[in-house]
Amino acid sequence: MLRHRSLIGVDIGADQIKAVQVVRARQGWRIAANTSFPRGETSSIPSDDEVFQLADILDNTGFHGSDIVIGTPRSLLSTAVLDLPPKDSGAPVEQLCAAEFSRMFRLPHGSYELHTWEMPTATDRTMTTQMATTGLECENATMLIAPFEAAGLHIVALDLASEATSRVCRYGCNESDELTTLLDIGWSGVELAVFRDGEVVYERWLRNAGVGSLVESLSRSLNLSDRAARILVRRVGLAGFDDKNADPVLVARMLSVMREYTEGLLQQVFGSVAYVLERFPGESVTQIRVCGGGASIPMFPEYLAEMAGLDVLPIVPRECCIVGGRAADSSLLLTALGYALWRGE
C-alpha cells in the first residue's frame, strides 16, 4: 500500500496549514492521512517554527515519506492576461508570453518561472488568443523552499492554488451541461473558477473577499476580540442564536455585517459571471459550488442561494475523485488534495 501513496499536499493558508495524503485503492483514491492546525504567523512564507511543527505532525499522524507539494503564496506571484495572435497564425505564443511578461514586470528573462494557460472561449472567437500568465521569481522560490528543506521536507513542486483546486474539483463540477461557478472561500480571498464540461474556462482571485475580512468587520463593528469574532463566524454564522436571552440588538448587528459581506461577495461573483457569459453567448449559469473554510459557515450557502437565485451547494472530496477515507466530507481539504494529486490523477 505504501508504494501506492501519493505525494503529501500541503496547503499554507493565511489562517491554517492543511496537509493531505491519499492512497490508490481499487475504486480510486482514498484519503490515508490528513491534518490541519492554526498558524501563529501572518506572513505569506511560513516561519521555521511553523515548518518544523508541520514536519513533526506529519511524522506522528499517519503520513509516509517526506516528498511534498506546496502552494505558492499569492503575494509572491505576478499575474497578467495577455492578448496575443491566434495560435493557428503560426505565431510563437509561448515565447511572446515570456517576452511580454518580462516587459510588463521588468524582470530579466530566466529570473522567473512562468505558468501559462490559454483561456478557452466560444469557437467562433478566433481573432486573438488570450493567455493567462503567472510568474514566480526564482529568488522568491528559493526563499520559500528554504525552511522546508531545513526541516527535512523535500519539495517536489511549487503548485498554484487555482491549478490544484481545478485538478480535484472538475469531477464534481461536471454534473451539468451548463456553466458551473466554483468559489473556494479562504481566509485572505476567494478563488473563483467557472467550469464548462469539466474544463476551467475562467478564473479570478477575489482579493480581500475571504473569511478574514468578515472576521475583521465583525470585530470592528461589534467591538469584539479577534478570537470572539472567529467563534461567531464559525459557530453561529447566518443561523442566528437559539438563546432567547441573546441581546436582539447585538444579534441584528451581527447578522447585518454577515449579510453585507455575503452580498458584497455576490456582486463580485456576478461581475465575473457576466464577463464569462459574454465569452460564451447562449450559455447560462444555474449552479454555484462552494468549498474552503467559508463553505462551513452556518447558513452561508443557504443565504447565498437565496440572494443569487441559484443552487448553492458545498463540494466535498467524496463528490470528486475520492472514494472514501478520513475527511472525505470536508470541503476544507480540497486544495491540499489537489496538491497531493500533482503527480497523477
Question: How would you state the average pLDDT, rounded?
Answer: 88
Distance linking N and C termini: 17 Å
Helical residue percent band:
25-40%
- Estimated share of beta-strand residues: 25-35%
Second-tier CATH architecture of the largest domain? 2-Layer Sandwich
Order of helices and strands: EEEHEEHEEHEHEEEHHHEHEEH
* SSE-based structural type: alpha/beta
Describe the structure.
The structure is a single chain. The chain is α/β, with parallel strands linked by helices. It has 2 domains: 1-171 and 324-345, 2-Layer Sandwich (Nucleotidyltransferase, domain 5); 186-314, ATPase, nucleotide binding domain (Nucleotidyltransferase, domain 5, 2-Layer Sandwich), CATH 3.30.420. The protein contains 9 helices and 14 strands. Helix 4 packs across helix 9 (334-340), helix 5 (211-222) packs across helix 6 (226-236) and helix 5 packs antiparallel against helix 7.
Give a brief description:
This protein is an alpha/beta fold. 34% of the residues lie in helices and 29% in strands. The chain folds into two domains: 1-171 and 324-345, Nucleotidyltransferase, domain 5 (2-Layer Sandwich), CATH 3.30.420; 186-314, ATPase, nucleotide binding domain (Nucleotidyltransferase, domain 5).
